[in-house]
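RECORD CONTENTS
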Amino acid sequence: MPAGPTEWTVPGQVGVGPWPGGRGAWPDDERYDPALLEHGDRRNVVDVYRYWRRDAVAADLAARAHPFHVAIENFGHDHNIGTVVRTANAFAAAGVHIIGRRRWNRRGAMVTDRYQQIHHHADVAGLVRFATEHRLAIVAVDNTPGAVPLETARLPRQCLLLFGQEGPGLTGEARAAASLVVSIAQFGSTRSINAGVAAGIAMHTWIRAHADLTRAW
């Protein structure tokens, strides 16, 4: 059978040990971190980035990034932001934008915020300025009257997916700033789905429409 990710090698063990062969066998490449080569790399990264320095990983991700961004409002200290950041990293979003409070719960990010471009905006107006400067169409994701079903919508290639916080959803200002509002089809009794889950669904919809799947790990 073909070899899988390194975390499959030993059950319960993530990552790899010291570089085989000792110092004399270390690769001559500035992207590699001497400390990781010597002691091993137990980080939550794909095998391609094993032993790489943090800034080298971040630079490579930025070069591979897709032309979509993700934004989430944080006026009530939303605990879903970490999940949004982790998912944005998995889908190689060009950036994550947090509107409102600077502080957010990083536990759900699983350290991916160290490699992901994170932007902060005090208010929606700041986000709109960024989107305008970078020619990003703002697409709000919210189950509100008049929203276009995400399942049939065509997301712009260069866009900023905007999500509200858990509970109240998007603010009126955020909805007004969007050139397109999309909703996710639901069939059960709950009024809404988790904001982190909604973000993952929307990002993957963009991936299905625009990503080059041959570049996936």
User: Anything to note?
Assistant: Residues 195-210 form the longest helix (16 residues). The radius of gyration is 19 Å.
